[in-house]
What does this fold into?
Amino acid sequence: MIHSFVEVAEVSHFPLQNLPWGVFSLRADGRKRIGTRMGDWVVDVAGLQARGLFDGPQLRGTAVFDQLTLNPFMALGAPAWNEARATLQTLLAADTPTLRDNAELRAQVFHPLADVTMHLPAVIGDYTDFYASEYHAANVGKMFRPDDAPLLPNWKQLPVGYHGRASSIVLSGTEVVRPCGQILPPGAASPIFAASTELDFELEMGFFIGPDNSLGQPIPVNRAEEHIFGLVLVNDWSARDIQRWEYRPLGPFLAKNFATSISPWVVTLAALRPFQTPGLTQDPNPLPYLQTANTTLNIQLEVSLKSAQMDAPLVISRSNMRHLYWNMAQMVAHHTITGCNLRPGDLLATGTISGPTADSYGSLLELAWRGTRPLTLPTGETRIFLQDGDELTITGWAQGDGYRVGLGEVYGRVAGQDTGGRMYSPFGK
Ligand code: MN
It folds into this structure.
């Protein structure tokens, strides 16, 4: 196992094995640049490159880290990503003196978290959200179409998805304002305009696209990983009451376009490859363009909720990325099979990752089973959906032998909106 001269706790998400990518600025100067994370430190990779320390053939002479976003680095592809990772692992290793023995240089490029502001890692041109957990899709089917088969006939033939909204993707920590919209109250003949009373979270993973494909050139499923830069945690905030009225026939629209939160550090496939694990059995066998060695990632996921009255957050769900039915390579191959071009910095998300058991569901819709099984909080409060002041945190990590490779967290607090009293109670309560 590799060690750094930087002390990193065993439960930290950010040991030398991780080396995620992010965009940060110092509170002192406000200048955005590219960095990585070691334990509780942010390391200024742009500063290291400016000192000539990235001298491999892929990155020598470039200024790809002195940038406002990761898009130019994402576009370079795996040879450059791997060279950067190897360079950082060497510079930060316990037996490399360059930084270890140069206190002045360390002071210039190592920054405590308290001095740093994180920013969106990329300009996200397009955002697509899939629906790749069978457990989630079946739960939703059972709730909303109780008389039919839980899954629609297309679900096991293709990774179902929709084109989402990129402009409202926000960084972890951004407050989420409860949206207003058209809502059809239960039993009513026509809709009202009101603040959503069924605001929900969705536990998801997202992945950023690296090198593009040309318009008209599908990405073969067995080459898809070359186009995946890295992963983040995603909370796809959803207004279920707005969704229920608007979604037929074209799917989600305003119910999901007001905010989608992502974690700030992009964790590379190289860091997560040791945690690859076989995917779930796919039956029926998908069409040839979707056939691949079906692997997924063993990433433990946790959701916690804290109301304004609570002293500490409560874990309300424990899931795992391995519960997905479709894998990331299949999502990329399916997305591009028409010739649709993906671009560096595009974000694809998996859809809600629910597991098989009731404590592993990835949304309040499922955890409280459409309002019929309210969650009870330690304060005695109950929840079927999110209330104003609620704080929602998703975290995730892969567990190694004595270390973790983690995604950090994606956090958001719900802010209320005064709608002049036109609220209604769902489910007739
Ligand atoms: Mn979603």
User: Anything to note?
Assistant: The first strand starts at residue 22 and ends at 26. Residues 419-429 have pLDDT under 50 and may be disordered. Residues 22-119 form a domain with the SH3 type barrels. fold (CATH 2.30.30.230).
